[in-house]
Amino acid sequence: MTMPLRIENLKISFGRGAVEAVRDVSLELRPGEILAVVGESGSGKSLTARSVLKMFPEGAIVDGRISLTGQDVLAASPAELERLRGEAAAMVFQEPSTALNPVFTIGWQIGEGLKAHGMRDRRERRTRVIELLRDVGIPDPETRVDYYPHQLSGGQKQRVVIAMALALRPAVIIADEPTTALDVTVQAGILDLLRRCRDELGSSILIITHNLGVVADLADRVVVMYQGQIVEEASSTVLFSSPKADYTRRLLAAVPRLGEGTAKEDNTSRKQLVLEADRLEITFPGRFGKTPVPAVRGVSFDIAAGEVLGLVGESGSGKSTIGRAVVGISPVTGGAMKLFGTDLRHVKGDRLRQLRRRVGFVFQDPASSFNRFMTVFDCIAEPLRVHRALPSAPALRSRVLELLEQVQLPRDMAGRYPGELSGGQRQRVGLARALALNPEFIVADEPTSALDVSIQAKVLELFTTLQKDLGFAALFISHDLAVVEEISHRVGVLRHGELLELGSAREVMSTPRHDYTRLLIDSVPVPDPAVQARKRADVHSMLSL
Amino acid sequence: MTVFTNTIVGGRGGAFSRAMQNPHLIFGFVIIGCIALAAVVLPGLLGLDSLAVDPLNRLKPPSVAHPLGTDNFGRDLAARILAGASTSLSLATAVTLLAASLGVAVGIVASFSRLLDHVIMRICDGLMAIPALLLALALTATFGPNFSNLVIALVIVFVPGIARLVRARALALRSETFVEAAIAVGASNLHIMVRHIFPNVLSVLAVQVTFIFAETIVIEAALSFLGAGVPPPAPSWGNILYDGKAAITKAPYMVLFASTAIVITVTGLTMIGDGLRDLVDPRMGARLQPGMARRLFGLIRPRTSEGEQQ
Amino acid sequence: MFTYTLRRAGALIPVLLVVSIVVFSLGWLAPGDPARIVLGPEALEADIQKLRDSMGLNETLWYRYLDWISDALRGDLGTSYFLNMPVSTAIGQHFGPTVQLAVLTIIYALVISVPLGTLAARWRGSGFDQGIAGFTLIGLTFPSFVLSLILVIVFSVWLRCLPVAGYRDLFSDPFNGLRYLILPALSLGTIYAALITRTVRASVLDVLKSEYVDAARSRGVSENRLLFAHALRNAGLPIITMIGLSFASLLSGAVVAESIFNIPGIGSLLVNAIERRDYPVLQGVVLFLTLIYLGLNLLVDLLYGIIDPRVRLTGTVAK
User: Fold this and answer.
1) E strand or H helix that includes residue A458
2) Tell me: the pLDDT tens digits for B164-206?
3) Cα separation of B270 and B292, whole Å?
4) Does residue A381 sit in the same domain as residue A429?
5) Region C250-258: what's the mean pLDDT?
6) Which domain holds residue A411?
7) What's the rounded Cα separation, in Å, for the pair B225 and B204?
8) Which H, E and C letters describe A92-107, residue by residue?
9) Which DSSP symbol is given to C79?
10) Contact map slice: C 177-196 vs B, CB within 8 A
């Protein structure tokens, strides 16, 4: 029997063999199976997936054998290749907004694949496209078929991309991080759709992901890749219960798990409040001819000295806006926001700067939050210099070195430029910069969302340790429930600019009061196939209510 | 996720050594350096006089006495082309320095205040709507053609473009995370301007300035050629072309030699500009901007607010 | 789309205001008394005063500007000092040759650049691509007036196959008209051909690298279709901008070419006006060419709207 897909000894290298991105990878996809390829960035998993359709970046040197429904892909002629693409295997991309051509309607783009494979009649194509859109759960497909991509939401766009992949009923669907760009509640829907593709159409699916929760939710078998090599291959249940390879074990340990965060007794007194938000409103002025958009509506919370408050929400929930308002980058337009007892609406100039001195800010993307013309030393020293906090150059120097030590970076990092560091190292520098003035309060805006899981785990650990040692209060903003649970004393849940729920981390995660919180918690796939299957059933019953 | 090489090479560290690895940059500098050196040293060394008229030896082809021949007044063409080089280079230097400093000042001031920004940018839009060559022509025609008026006219032509570029860059930088980080730390506006905005603007400016240098040389030649530039008998490449055009059937070498001088200079500057651009931002070289192309094109094309869309 | 059109057009108002002020000040800054220029050096003082009155020169500057702009809005750009006719009539008479030259030039540039640029992108890195890169570099480093002189030397002086200079109307005498316009169009068009080639190549490459082309490829769409359906349509935006701007700038670029080849177009009108200090003509021509440029620019903006549904449907340019 021929396998839908078999990869044998695939090697991909760049720069005349200088960089080996994929080393000797062999795997096979069985009929009706969902196989997950897991790895962190740089593991070569995406390259492996794309090679199935012979889509390599420029300058790639490829060796090995890929057989797709019995045909050798790497040796195929251009005409054969065009036939294989779409008919034998189709692809679902990570970022649906770039995978769709903005200047054509979605109907035209789905139809293009059909036309390329011989469906000439226009009306027949249109009927088939509408049918496909209905299958993937696009409401009112007769109208939406004439929509342009920008008129659809992110989740809908990904459904359209899947519809394109399904158009010719390919034997193999390759999904390259299909849910990474989506919110967690939307992700659940897309994962369901992929499962249906297998169950109802019998497609075999190769899914590439870095998210072990997604793997547990969907995959029958798992291949773990690390630095271009396969380190482990096992069935999903076996992998999660008894991982063999060292790397797999480390990876599993690094994933923050929902509901397993260590209980933190809340021994902070609420006498001394660092931040108070009282019916906070933040509205951005509309651009010419447009109505202003409220980003935050009537949000009230407070943070006591030494306490960590986590704010969770999906994109557009206003969580980052609140964080930025604390240091006055976003304007407070209604209600009150008191920082150290001073209402931010009524301070300006020097007094505002003095308030900012007592707050540290850690940004989401460590790559862009540093001026590339400044060394690490200058970056960390900047707050000290701005506020003339230290009397002499030697004092400044020793303080910066002390900070580097605190965030566990070697001293010789000081002379390097931020661009020369890895993502994790840069985020440590970001932490050092935030700590420079010994702030009483730190705002961390998605500080780990740009990092790989194993690096995220280390940065979170560092953050927790520093928080315990230095005792600062913190506002920790994230889209990741598990991360927030692990790090905060109390948790607030935001949706569309409103605070739905606020309570101790334990309370909110174990006995959520609001339906949305429950949906959010249940949508997060857990890296344990058995538990995840139960959870999925819960979500289904919830959604059908 | 694919292999993510996101290394940005540091600014000061090894800028010089990277410059030395950039053949365009080195070659460009060598060309321009040689021309400048020749323009300064050779006339004195060889005792060339660009204004000495010799009615008996008019329009003579190249010979030992006159290596590039003589023009329609019997003046030595080599002397005139060298003198033209020093006219062009000194004009370009003056225009570039003045326009750059004025443009940076205006651009940074505009990025500070909303009201001023609106007023200044509308004025820049208006000035840029008039094609550069046309504006330069109209201004020199109005002011009267001489060296300093030419400088004034060209500065007026180039300042709006630089101001727009600097302002657009400054505004873009203001929404960058690292500037927000500085604001969050409590840094003052002045600190942000000096430490964060200025160094980042400077790199783009360096590229722009090279292109303006080249443009000035071409525009000067065009203006002189049309009779609105450096007034004759002063030597300038445009004037030589003008005289050469009248004698094009008898002495085509006049036009050929002057053209060669212009083309070599522009090529040298193009190389410097392209090289600088690669040096400043390796990503930009691969992007859509045809750099020099666009700049040269801007000579006759009216400029829009393209800097903003970056 | 309608609001989009209105907004784009509305944005031109402040620009036009500044342009009008600049153009008006050209006449005001000019040395010499216009009345004296018109009447010549031997005129009587009384006559000069009378003419000054009738020309409105004794009014305040503010009043003169309003007067000038309201005339200009009605299409009255004043009277030439030397041509004995209204400036607008003079521009009308000289516009034909310039348009003929510009159209011929842009056709030449397009015929060369679009196929070359697309093919260079298709076979990037090949010998063909390198050749194109060389051609564009040469095209860009030769200023058009230098190129025209060199072309004259080669074709008219050495080969003697084309006339040195002159003009015949293209419509009444197509063969000779074309013979006279070939060299000007070649010299003027090469820089645009090079520019548009580069733009086409770069934008087609940009699109070919995008993920939606990969996505279409993964659906089995052929390479040729990718190139012509996806790449050219998406790359159309920057290409159309470049073409629109080229055409607009051609009209002013023609100034130099016309004076070299003695073509009686707008450019010759302008150069003669400068020589004779005929300021109303100078002002009129500058204003006229600027307006044409702005008009074409607006047209390009509107074309954007037609090509890009994001612009058409929401009225904003998505990032």
Assistant:
1) helix A453-470
2) 888 888 888 887 888 888 888 888 888 888 888 888 888 778 8
3) 6
4) yes
5) 80
6) 374-438
7) 32
8) ECCCHHHHCCCCCCHH
9) B
10) 191-192, 194-195
Query: What pLDDT, on the 0 to 100 scale, is given for residue B7?
Result: 36
A477 and A419 in a common domain: no
C-alpha A436/C-alpha A451 separation (Å) is: 23
Mean pLDDT, to the nearest integer, of B92-111?
Answer: 90
Are the CB atoms for C18 and B126 separated by under 8 Å? yes
- Do residues C20 and C72 touch, judged by C-beta distance below 8 A? yes
Residue type at C260? I
Domain finish residue from A422, A438, A454: A438
- pLDDT at position A231 is 92
Q: What pTM does this model have?
A: 0.76
A382 & A433 share domain: yes
Boundary-marking domain end, from A396, A416, A438:
A438
Q: Would you say A477 and A320 are in contact if contact means Cβ atoms under 8 Å apart? A: yes
The chain-wide mean pLDDT, for chain B, equals: 77
Distance from CA of A77 to the nearest CA of C (A): 12
Does residue C102 sit at the B interface (CB-CB below 8 Å)? no
Is the minimum CB–CB distance between B175 and chain A shorter than 8 Å? no
The CATH code of the domain that includes A466 is 3.40.50.300
User: Under an 8 A CB cutoff, do A327 and B191 touch?
Assistant: no
- Residues on chain A touching C314 (C-beta within 8 angstroms): 150
The alpha-carbon gap from B139 to the nearest alpha carbon of chain C, in Å, equals: 7
Chain B: nearest CA to A354, how far in angstroms? 7
Please tell me which of the candidates C218, C220, C307 has its beta carbon nearest to residue A103.
Answer: C307
Distance, CA of A176 to CA of A170 (rounded, Å): 16
Q: Which domains does chain C have, with CATH numbers?
A: 87-312 (1.10.3720.10)
**Chain B residue whose CA is closest to C160:** B249
Whether A146 maps to a domain, the answer reads yes
Burial of C291 (0-12, 13-18, 19+ CB in 10 A): middle
The interface residues of chain C toward chain B in range 288-307, judged by CB-CB distance below 8 A, are 289-290, 293-294, 297
* Residue C119 scores a pLDDT above 60: yes
Query: Which chain C residues have a beta carbon less than 8 Å from that of B241?
Result: 145-146, 149
* Residue A528 belongs to a domain: no
What band does B140 get if pLDDT is binned at 50, 70 and 90? confident
Residues A263 and A347 in one domain: yes
Q: Is residue B94 predicted with pLDDT exceeding 60?
A: yes
Question: Residue B151: what are its φ and ψ, rounded to 5°?
Answer: -60, -50
Residue for token digits 């006591």? Answer: A304
| Residue A176, φ and ψ in degrees, nearest 5 | -100, 100
Same domain? A343 vs A482: yes
Q: Are residues A445 and A417 in the same domain?
A: no
Give all domains of chain B, ordered by start, each with its CATH number: 15-308 (1.10.3720.10)
How many helices (H) and strands (E) in chain A? 21, 20
How many structural domains are present in chain A? 3
CA distance A298 to A495: 12
Q: How far apart are CA A517 and CA A484, in angstroms?
A: 13
Residue A148 lies in a domain: yes
Q: Which residues pair with A67 in a beta bridge?
A: A6, A72
Q: Are residues A273 and A421 in the same domain?
A: no
Instruction: Read off the pLDDT band of C278 (50, 70, 90).
Output: confident
Residue A343 and residue A261 share a domain: yes
Lowest mean pLDDT, pick from A465-469, B57-61, B206-210, B224-228: B57-61
- In SS3 terms, A426-492 reads as HHHHHHHHHHCCCCCEEEEECCCCCCCHHHHHHHHHHHHHHHHHHCCEEEEEECCHHHHHHHCCEEE
A20 found inside a domain: no
Q: What does the pLDDT look like over A14-29, one tens digit per residue?
A: 877 778 889 999 999 9
Structure-token pair, residue B95: 């225009």
